[in-house]
C-alpha cells in the first residue's frame, strides 16, 4: 500500500475517534468537558517543574536569596499537588463514565445483532466481523484496544502535543537547528514504530480473527455445560485441547513474524534516539562550558529534552494504540451500519394481515442454502387451507425443516413464491407476520431465566391463562414440585439452586410457549421427540383440541402424530412425493406406507 493510502487510512481511523467523541457528546456533554480539563491539567505538569527549577536555581546560584527560592519551592509543590488532585478527581469520574459508555455501546451492538436476519446470522463471515467489532469492548489479546484505553490515550495524545509545543518554544530560544534535527530523527523513529505496529495489528485483527474464534470455541467446548455430557462420555478432553493447540500453533507463526519486525524496528529507532540524545546533552553542556548559557538554562534545556523524549515516545505509543483503536472503531461503526436483511425487507413490506384465517400457497418454490450447489427444496407446490392440520414427514435431510424456515422467512426462496391469502409473504410487515405465526423447533432452547419468563418472555400475562396451559399439557405436577413454582430459576449456569428440567419437561415448556402466543398459525417441528409415547399421545389429543381454530403444520418422524392430521405430505430430497390422509396413503402403499411399516411395532403397542 502506498504512503498516500496509508495516510488516508490513518486519517479515517482518527476520524473514527472523533466520531466516538461525537457519539459520547450526544450521550454525555459533561464527559467531553471533563476530558478537555484533563488534557490541560496533564499538559501543564512538566512546565511547572521546569520553570520553577529555573527560578529556584537563579535565586540560589545568582541572586543568593534562599527565602525567595524557598517560596518558589513551596509554590512549585502546591501547584503540583493541585494538578495531581485534579487529575485523580477527573480520573475517578472518567472510570465511572467509561463503564456507562461501554454498556450503552454494547447494547447498541447486541440490538444490531438481534436485528439481523436469520440468514445473516447463519454466515461465518458475519461472526468474524462481529468478533472484530467486539474488540472495542473486550481486548481479548493485549494487542487489541479497549474503549477505556482509547478514551484515555486520545486525551493523553492531545496533552502530549501541547507539551511538545511548549518544549519546542523552549528549544527555539537556543537554536532552531537543534530542535529541527531532534524532531526529524524522532519522527523517523515514530514512523518505524507505527509501521511495525501496523504489521502486528493486521496479523491479529485480520488474518487471525477466524483462528481466534476457533480457539475460543474449543475453550467453550471444555467449559460450557451444554457440551459437558459428550465431552465426558467420549473422553474428549485431550482431543479438544489438541485441536486448540493446533490453532494456537498456527497463531504463533503469524504472531512471531510480526513480533520480529517490531523488535527490529524498535532497535533501530532506539539507537537513533539514544545517539541523538547524547549529542544534544553534550551540546547543552558545551554551551554552558563556553559561558553561552547560565546554569539555570542548562537545567531548563536538560529537563526540556527529558520532556521532549518522553512526549515523543508517548506520542508514538498513543498513535500506535489509537491507530488500532481507529481500526476497531471502523469495524464497530461498519457493523452498526450492516443493513439488516429483515429491515431491508421491512422497508418494502408494509402489508398487514387483517384476518386470522390463512391460506398459504407455495408456488414452484426452489431453495438453495447460501454457498451451496444443490437445492434443498425443489419445485415445491402446496396449498395449506385455513385451520387445516398438515403433517410433513420424510427421511432425515428430506427438507422438512428447510420448508419451515422458508415459511418463517428465515430464508427467501431462490425461485418461486410463498403467498398468504394471495400476498407474497415477503411483502408482509415482519412484525405483523411474526405475531401471526408460532413455531416450536426440534432444537428449541430453554433460557437461564425463571420458568415464567421462559413461558411468556416479555409479554403481559394472566395467571389463569398460564394455569390453563399448564393443565392442558399435564405440566401441573412438574410445576408444583419446583421450589418456587412458576418463578423457579431454570438452568444452572448462574444459580447453583437453578433447576435443570428433564428433556420431556423442557419440550412441554416449549410447546406451552407456543400455546401462550396463541397465534392463528402454528408450526411444530418435531415437538414431541423427547416425550414418552403416552405423553405424546396426551399432547396430541389436547393439542388437536387447543389448535382446532388454528392452521397447524407438524413435522414428525413418529407416524402416530400424523394420524391426527387432515393431510400428510411426504418429502424426499426436497420434493413432495406423496400427499393425502393417513388412510389414503396407507392404501396407496407408497413411501408413507414404507415409513409407517418401519414403525409398525411401535404402533401396535400404542394401539393395544
Ligand atoms: N444451514 C444450512 N446450510 C447448508 N445446508 C443445509 C443447512 N441446513 C440444512 N441443510 C441441508 O439441507 C438439506 C435439508 O435439510 P433439513 O434440515 O431441511 O432436513 P429435514 O428433513 O428437516 O431433516 P431431519 O429430519 O434430519 O431434521 C440437508 O441436505 C441439509 O444438509
TrEMBL record:
Subcellular location: Cell membrane
Matching SMART domains: AAA
GO molecular function, one term: ATP binding
Major subcellular location class: membrane
Membrane topology, as annotated: Multi-pass membrane protein
Membrane-spanning ranges: 31-57, 69-93, 157-174, 180-197, 274-292, 298-322
Domain (ABC transporter): residue spans on this chain: 360-598
Residue stretches making up the ABC transmembrane type-1 domain: 157-324
Gene3D superfamilies found in the cross-reference section: ABC transporter type 1, transmembrane domain, P-loop containing nucleotide triphosphate hydrolases
Pfam family membership, one: ABC_tran
Top-level taxon of origin: Bacteria
Keywords on record: ATP-binding, Membrane, Nucleotide-binding, Transmembrane, Transmembrane helix
Listed PROSITE patterns: ABC_TM1F, ABC_TRANSPORTER_1, ABC_TRANSPORTER_2
PANTHER family found in the cross-reference section: ATP-BINDING CASSETTE SUB-FAMILY B, ATP-BINDING CASSETTE SUB-FAMILY B MEMBER 6
Protein name: ABC transporter ATP-binding protein
Species for this entry: Paenibacillus nicotianae
Organism lineage string: Bacteria, Bacillati, Bacillota, Bacilli, Bacillales
Amino acid at each position: 500500500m502506498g504512503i498516500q493510502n496509508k495516510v488516508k487510512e490513518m486519517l479515517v481511523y482518527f476520524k473514527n475517534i472523533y466520531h466516538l467523541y461525537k457519539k459520547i457528546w450526544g450521550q454525555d456533554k459533561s464527559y467531553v468537558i471533563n476530558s478537555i480539563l484533563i488534557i490541560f491539567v496533564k499538559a501543564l505538569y512538566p512546565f511547572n517543574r521546569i520553570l520553577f527549577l529555573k527560578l529556584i536555581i537563579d535565586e540560589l546560584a545568582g541572586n543568593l536569596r534562599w527565602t525567595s527560592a524557598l517560596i518558589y519551592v513551596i509554590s512549585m509543590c502546591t501547584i503540583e499537588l493541585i494538578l495531581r488532585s485534579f487529575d485523580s478527581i477527573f480520573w475517578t469520574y472518567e472510570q465511572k463514565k467509561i463503564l456507562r459508555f461501554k454498556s450503552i455501546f454494547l447494547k447498541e451492538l447486541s440490538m444490531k445483532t438481534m436485528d439481523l436476519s436469520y440468514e445473516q446470522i447463519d454466515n461465518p463471515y458475519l461472526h468474524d466481523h462481529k468478533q472484530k467489532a467486539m474488540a472495542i469492548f473486550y481486548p481479548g489479546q493485549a494487542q487489541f484496544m479497549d474503549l477505556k484505553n482509547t478514551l484515555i490515550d486520545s486525551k493523553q495524545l492531545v496533552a502530549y502535543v501541547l507539551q511538545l509545543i511548549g518544549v519546542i518554544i523552549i528549544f527555539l530560544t537556543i537554536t532552531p537547528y537543534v530542535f529541527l534535527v531532534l524532531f526529524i530523527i524522532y519522527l523517523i523513529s515514530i514512523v518505524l514504530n507505527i509501521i511495525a505496529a501496523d504489521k502486528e495489528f493486521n496479523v491479529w485483527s485480520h488474518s487471525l480473527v477466524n483462528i481466534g474464534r476457533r480457539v475460543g470455541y474449543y475453550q467453550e467446548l471444555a467449559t460450557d455445560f451444554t457440551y459437558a455430557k459428550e465431552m465426558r462420555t467420549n473422553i474428549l478432553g485431550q482431543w479438544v485441547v489438541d485441536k486448540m493447540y493446533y490453532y494456537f500453533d498456527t497463531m504463533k507463526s503469524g504472531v512471531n513474524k510480526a513480533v520480529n519486525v517490531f523488535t527490529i524496528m524498535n532497535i533501530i529507532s532506539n539507537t537513533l534516539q539514544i545517539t541523538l540524545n547524547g549529542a544534544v546533552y553534550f551540546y547543552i553542556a558545551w554551551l554552558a562550558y563556553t559561558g553561552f548559557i547560565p546554569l539555570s538554562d542548562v537545567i531548563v534545556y536538560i529537563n526540556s529534552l527529558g520532556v521532549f523524549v518522553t512526549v515523543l515516545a508517548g506520542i508514538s505509543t498513543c498513535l500506535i494504540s489509537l491507530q488500532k483503536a481507529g481500526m476497531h472503531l471502523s469495524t464497530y461503526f461498519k457493523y452498526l451500519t450492516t443493513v439488516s436483511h429483515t429491515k431491508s425487507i421491512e422497508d418494502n413490506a408494509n402489508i398487514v394481515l387483517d384476518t386470522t384465517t390463512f391460506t398459504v400457497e407455495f408456488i414452484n418454490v426452489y431453495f438453495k442454502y447460501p454457498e451451496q450447489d444443490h437445492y434443498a427444496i425443489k419445485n415445491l407446490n402446496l396449498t395449506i387451507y385455513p385451520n387445516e392440520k398438515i403433517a410433513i414427514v420424510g427421511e432425515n435431510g428430506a427438507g422438512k425443516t428447510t420448508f419451515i424456515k422458508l415459511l418463517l422467512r428465515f430464508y427467501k426462496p431462490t425461485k418461486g413464491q410463498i403467498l398468504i391469502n394471495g400476498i407474497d409473504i415477503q411483502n408482509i410487515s415482519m412484525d405483523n407476520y411474526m405475531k401471526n405465526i408460532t413455531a416450536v423447533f426440534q432444537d428449541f432452547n430453554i433460557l437461564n431465566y425463571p420458568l415464567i419468563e421462559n413461558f411468556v418472555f416479555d409479554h403481559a400475562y394472566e395467571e389463569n391463562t398460564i394455569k390453563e396451559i399448564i393443565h392442558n399439557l399435564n405440566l401441573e405436577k412438574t410445576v408444583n414440585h419446583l421450589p418456587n413454582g412458576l418463578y423457579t430459576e431454570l438452568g444452572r449456569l448462574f444459580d447453583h439452586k437453578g433447576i435443570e428440567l428433564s428433556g420431556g419437561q423442557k419440550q412441554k415448556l416449549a410447546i406451552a410457549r407456543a400455546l401462550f402466543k396463541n397465534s392463528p398459525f402454528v408450526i411444530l417441528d418435531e415437538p414431541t421427540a423427547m416425550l414418552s409415547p403416552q405423553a405424546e399421545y396426551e399432547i396430541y389429543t389436547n393439542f388437536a383440541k387447543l389448535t382446532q381454530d388454528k392452521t397447524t403444520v407438524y413435522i414428525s418422524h413418529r407416524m402416530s402424530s400424523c394420524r391426527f392430521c387432515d393431510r400428510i405430505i411426504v418429502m424426499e430430497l426436497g420434493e413432495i412425493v406423496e400427499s393425502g390422509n393417513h388412510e389414503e396413503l396407507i392404501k396407496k402403499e407408497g413411501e408413507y406406507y414404507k415409513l409407517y411399516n418401519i414403525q409398525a411395532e411401535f404402533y401396535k403397542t400404542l394401539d393395544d
